[in-house]
Amino acid sequence: MVWMGNQTLIPHFILLGLFTHSPLHLFFFSIIMVMFLVALSGNGLMILLISVDSHLHSPMYFFLSWLSLMDLMLISTIVPRMAVDFLLGGGAISFTGCGLQILFFLTLLGDECFLLAFMAYDRYVAISNPLRYSVVMSRRICWIMVAGSWLFGLVDGLIQAVFTLRFPYCSSQEIDHFFCEVPAVLKLACADTSLYETMIYVCCILMLLLPFSVISASYLRILVAVLCMRSAEGRKKAFATCSSHMAVVSLFYGAAMITYMRPQAYHSSKQDKVVSAFYTMITPMLNPLIYSLRNKEVTGALRKLLGRCPCGEG
């Protein structure tokens, strides 16, 4: 313990975790580990398919490969640590370890926010202006978009990690969560965090609402363009291409907004854990399944890789 005035500062935090060691929770833990393995294999396979199959070397799949990498890194930032704590009965995490987890988690979260917006813009250009698609979405522009996503995410993660750990933490050292998420950590601060919570809210507007506005505007214009198509087959293909992306956006943004855009007073530990599990474990597992099961080009690439078909499907 470190003494500061009349307050005793704690040397580290203790993560209480998502489960107890009851038989039911052991069953749930087993399910999460299966989800973790599915997410690793699904996202890893998606990256492999996109890199080796020339039919998937387009801007849409370029962004999708980065989304898979981000999902793979996101779930790996959370689940292995949670599993070790559950199996060994620990939970202690240093200030540095907690800060790094906040940094990695929020960086990846911010990355995905902007990448999903760029993916929506890519679909808008492909459907609304197909003749200029290769010019507008050139390789250079795609790399700039990905680099911008990482930059914005890193800045957000650094700001929140540094400012969160600058507060004095005393009395209880138990974080009622399964990882160092900012709202859960701030509950232990023995100082006024209202100004910082306002700053977090502003950051969330920038990191969530602005990309979501780009996505909404892109898909509104896509909808108008699709409805103007004369070909029923063209409308069907356009809707099929975009519906997968909209499903991913709804899952990801819905959970993130519930966590980061509610006032601190409305947070409850149980609800926060469930919502956080949704976008740190369930969404990374579902993303490759959503994109692959409804995509003939991805399934065709998988068949080629497995040697079942001599050529890819359209």
Compact overview of the structure:
The chain crosses the membrane at residues 26-49, 61-79, 99-121, 141-163, 199-226, 238-262, 274-293. By secondary structure, this protein is mainly alpha-helical.
Tell me about this structure.
The protein has 314 residues and is mainly alpha-helical. It has a single domain, classed as Rhodopsin 7-helix transmembrane proteins (Rhopdopsin 7-helix transmembrane proteins). 73% of the residues lie in helices and 5% in strands. β1 and β2 form a beta hairpin. α3 packs antiparallel against α5. The longest helix has 34 residues. The radius of gyration is 21 Å and the shape is globular. The N terminus is likely disordered. This is G-protein coupled receptors family 1 profile domain-containing protein. It is a multi-pass membrane protein. InterPro entries: GPCR_Rhodpsn, GPCR_Rhodpsn_7TM, Olfact_rcpt. It is found in: Cell membrane.
